[in-house]
Write a structure and sequence with these properties.
Layout (H helix, E strand, L loop, with lengths): L3 E2 L2 H20 L6 E7 L3 H16 L3 E7 L5 H12 L6 E4 L9 H5 L13 H8 L8 H14 L6 E5 L6 H10 L3 E5 L6 H6 L3 E4 L17 E4 L3 E3 L2 E3 L4 H5 L4 E2 L6 H20 L11
Helix pairs in contact: 1-10, 2-10, 6-7, 6-10
Bound molecules: the ligand Nc1nc2c(c(=O)[nH]1)N[C@@H](CN(C=O)c1ccc(C(=O)N[C@@H](CCC(=O)O)C(=O)O)cc1)CN2.
Length: 291
């Protein structure tokens, strides 16, 4: 068997086209959503992501505000910039690109963003809302994974899902989203006993560990849907957390790296910015882009 490849690039392009339509409808009411992206330092990968975010924001007809700060910026200066963006009515979404330089307290910075403008969905209030089933801003990478899974599998109720990774940004919100869709969810991590056996039970396997080729082919349940969130830069180029060639022989469907989950992350960021703008103006949430 050779798995179907889940084309995240194509799904993301469709999602952005749909968002652009909604942005045109808002423009007719005199509303232009605005997204502010803050980059601290010169991490080369972050530079690439921030450039893509700016370009795609403009392509869908939103306003992009970019703020680049040197790596030795004091945390107070970043917090002052966030306060200024919180108060700016032209800015509907604020995102601070991660990772931050080591001298900064990531949680303090994220929690300084107004929750309604937190289009990354990382603020503790949005994490709490998601965990308790309330309306929230949902983190972009897990939201993108959920959209790919629903597209491929339809309703996820009753499916056995294993999420490898327990980060606040991917693993935990991913598990919450699957649970909201009534999947039966296990979160696995570095201390999980017999991880290969656990993975072999999964009809849905999400790999978010950040280690190249961590998930081996014989860990995959035949026919499973495998979502590879890993983006690892190696001497051989960009690779995921899953041994793609081996896993493809057993899975029913699998996301590639690149071209799988990554492009959905930025498309979902635009979706969240659109949602934030609609909510600010008292309009209904855009259909199909929120939970
Ligand atoms: N504030 C945030 N910081 C970070 C996030 C985030 O969601 N919010 N996620 C990642 C980086 N990231 C977005 O910021 C991101 C990563 C990868 C991609 C992507 O499209 N990847 C391509 C490959 C691109 C390449 O060559 O590097 C793919 O997988 O096809 C988009 C966004 C950490 N920081």
């Amino acid at each position: 068997m050779s798995a179907e490849i889940i084309d995240g690039k194509a799904s993301a392009a469709r999602l952005r086209a749909r968002i652009a339509e909604d942005v045109r409808a808002l423009a007719a009411r005199g509303i232009t959503p605005g997204l502010a992206v803050v980059l601290v330092g010169e991490d080369p990968a972050s530079e690439v992501y921030v450039r893509s975010k700016g370009r795609m924001t403009r392509e869908v007809g939103m306003t992009s505000f970019e703020h680049r700060l040197p790596a030795d910026t004091p945390e107070d200066a970043l917090l002052a910039l966030i306060a200024q963006l919180n108060a700016d009515p032209a800015v509907n979404g604020i995102l601070v690109q991660l990772p931050l330089p080591r001298h900064m307290d990531e949680a303090a910075v994220i929690n300084a963003i107004a929750p309604e403008k937190d289009v990354d969905g990382f603020h503790v209030i949005n994490a709490g809302r998601l965990a308790t089933g309330q309306t929230a801003m949902v983190p972009c990478t897990p939201l993108g994974c959920l959209m790919l899974l629903r597209d491929r599998l339809g309703p996820l109720a009753g499916k056995r899902a294993v999420v490898i990774g327990r980060s606040n940004i991917v693993g935990k919100p991913m598990a919450q989203l699957l649970l909201r869709d009534s999947a039966t969810v296990t979160i696995a991590h570095s201390r999980t006993a017999d991880l290969p056996a656990l993975c072999r039970e999964a009809e849905i396997l999400i790999a978010a560990v950040g280690r190249p080729f961590f998930v081996q082919g014989d860990w995959i349940r035949p026919g499973a849907t495998v979502i590879d969130v890993g983006i690892n830069r190696t001497e051989d180029g960009l690779v995921g957390d899953v041994d793609f060639v081996a896993a493809r022989q057993r899975a029913g469907a699998i996301t590639p790296v690149p071209g799988g989950v990554g492009p959905m992350t930025i498309a979902c960021l635009l979706a969240n910015t659109l949602t934030a703008a609609a909510r600010t103006h008292g309009l209904p949430d855009p259909e199909g882009l929120t939970l």
